[in-house]
Amino acid sequence: MTKTVPQTEEITPAPGAAQQDKERAKGGGLLGLVTANLRTSGIYIAFVAIVALFAVLTGGDSLSPDNLTNMVLQYSYILVLAIGMVIVIIAGHIDLSVGSVVALTGAVSAVLVIQQGMPYWVGIVAALAVGIAVGAWHGLWVAYVGIPAFIVTLAGMLLFRGLTLQVLDNVSLSPFPREYGRIATGFLNGLLGGYGYDAFTLLIGAVAVAGYAVSGWRARTARIRYDQPVESLDLFLLKVVAVGVVVMAFAWQLAHSRGLPIVLIVLAVLVLVYGLVTTRTVFGRQVYAIGGNLPAAMLSGVKVKKVNFWIFVNMGFLAAIAGIIYSSRMNGAQPAAGEMFELDAIAAAFIGGAAVTGGVGTVVGAMVGGLIMAVMTNGMQLMGIEQQVQMVVKGLVLLLAVAFDVYNKRRAGASR
Amino acid sequence: MGNILEMRSITKTFPGVKALEDVNLAVRTGEIHAICGENGAGKSTLMKVLSGVYPAGSYDGEIVYDGDPVSFGGIRDSEQVGIVIIHQELALVPYLSIAENIFLGNERRGRAGLIDWNRAHSEAETLLRSVGLRENPETPVGQLGVGKQQLVEIAKALSKNVRLLILDEPTAALNDTDSEHLLGLLRDLRERGITCIMISHKLGEIITIADRVTVIRDGRTVETLDMAAGEVTQDRIIRGMVGRDLDSYYPERASHPGEEVLRVEDWTVWHPSQDRKVVDGAAFDVRAGEVVGIAGLMGAGRTELAMSIFGRSWGRNISGRLFVHGKEVRARSVPEAIDHGIAYATEDRKHYGLNLIEDIRRNVSAAALGKLSRRGWVNGNEETKVAEASRRSMNIKAPTVSSVVGKLSGGNQQKVVLSKWLYTDPEVLILDEPTRGIDVGAKYEIYTIINRLVADGKAVVVISSELPELLGICDRIYTLSAGRITGQLPVREATQENLMELMTQDKEVAA
Fold first, then answer.
1. Which residues in A lie closer than 8 A to residue B367 (C-beta atoms)?
2. Where is this region: Disordered (chain A) (predicted)?
């Protein structure tokens, strides 16, 4: 039937886009892939460059077993926050309150466990409950009352900081019992033995690499079955080998230090779960749809209020996890805990390619964005650079990352 | 009479595409010169070259203005010599007053560089009078209708001592009365010696007002027709635009209406913020295999009627009864409406229909993700297959389903919208202005798709401002005036004249 349609519309839409798509479809070499996807791959290149730069500047210290272990412990809670934050940002919102929520959840936990002497798991459950309640509070105002998230969470930032001071009676509480401290400072080590290195850590690393390769292969064969373009086999293998080398080198270094940090396992599970939630579930799709075009999402039958509500509940939940990890690492709760965390989490999301206007961003991107900040901060600390210089550098990196993003969009838009 | 403007062999290349190739345009002083062409033919690009949006050096060729070669580095340069462009999307600030908008970037300064408001307001009043707009210059522009905003734009152009006025689709968003007024004003300006270039899709309008027409196709000038030299008909212009005769604008279709699919009774909708009824006791029905048209002037409540039926997505205090296949249903939200087999393709696909930053695949699946998922997990491969099937059957011109929708042409975007709604497997499709802003060839394709749908037994409701379109594709046409259904005509009895009569009926009574 369509064959009878007259072919008058000869103008193919935006040949620039067509070309780009063709390149992607062809698979091309690594270079072709990189130039075609500069926007998405730029972040990884930048990450590798920054890691290499600080490895050189610190004479290899930044990649030492102990330092890598330290970095994991030191930045895990920011990365946890960034997972929730990037989802909030994709939907076109922002959350300024997460620092205060980290403090409040840690404080509630500390009061119950340290002051009241309850078992450590009561503290964890209570912190999660408080985080979810805070998220529901924000979700209620944003989704059902219709107040912009900027205002709601700015209010929340004050509100929950105030409650933290109230709960703690304005004093620090410490120390937690040992079990609680293990969450952030514990390691799995020596489970399978090993001479000077931890075999278990290496095994987990190998399992992760194998999982990556198998799932990648299955996705690839499925795409072939559905007659979709795939990257060339060489490129696929190259990617698997590259990921394998990086992961195993990382695991090797960890195994030489104190073993597998428990927070790393928590973080890996969260990244995996939320990576899948954002890309493969109906909920994830609806988040992108709301951020991309709100009225269109509404008229496509997306229950916008419900989705927005759960986005904030989820943010509260993840803020509580970050609060537990942070209080565990600090071995106590302080009134000023978590200040500026929201800015680090937001910066991670934007460096990782999320768009201020919503609809764009990935969990993995936010993780890499967070790691870029982490590697830079850690590297500068190792080099003994003063605090003030560190802040200036981090500020400039955030600005340049977003400028690069805007530049790329404009370049893509110019072909229209 | 000499030429005020000559553009000679203009060639403009974007990465990977020649938008303009060896285009020539000569405009005589004091004429209204129309430019016609399909969407994407290069009309807007040509005007952007002329006004300096694309600065000199970014294109090849020569622009001669007033006998001298010129090269503009930006809009300011071209405005300096009296060339002003008014874009299709108006560039007014809604919260600023009329006077502030008119003198924006060109403020009337008094002593010490401060703005002289008295002078600005009195000058604004003079300008408003000259464009026939009786409004207080202190009124915020956002409170004016589109027609009046268009006049403010022209007043703004006049304030810059315009000599060559360029209008891009000036009447696209206007109703007939406002269009008439605008065209009258253009004649007026011609009397005053202002030359005018007008880009328009409305060929009827061009024939009544233009002195000459230049037709552009695929980035090249095809011809310039002189209205005075002989009779220029719409068909003649269309032949130039598409490069051949369109034997028929509308594909043939045999009509076999079946069972009733949708019936609406006593449907009343109130305005969400004002205390008035926008739809008042409307009733209509559609059968399987039938295309039903809804004709009405702007503001008659067409879109409001459709959106309130589609899960109450517009208005408040909605009352009335809705029947699908003879059974009364409640559709209080969009998901419920979709479940009952109702689909609504909006008139504004960019703002309400599509996620422009996503690809074809995710737009096609957006309204029926449930069909592609199990326990909340989306089957991405199946989704690709569905989108690929739509791309082929709808003839969406894009290399793959991963192409970003924002980069497609209007006609192809509309096909994505239709694909999305077809995938929800609807009983009845309500298409609001399905061919707005898309070119002649793509329109024909959309009509063919509509025919295919009704041949498959779907029921289709088409809302359109273009009466010839409704007469060309519908089986029956309802007329809507001030929120009331004022008539119903089988298409063989309907003419533009009797429809228009019904569309304007009762207006005073209802108001």
1. 300-301
2. 1-23
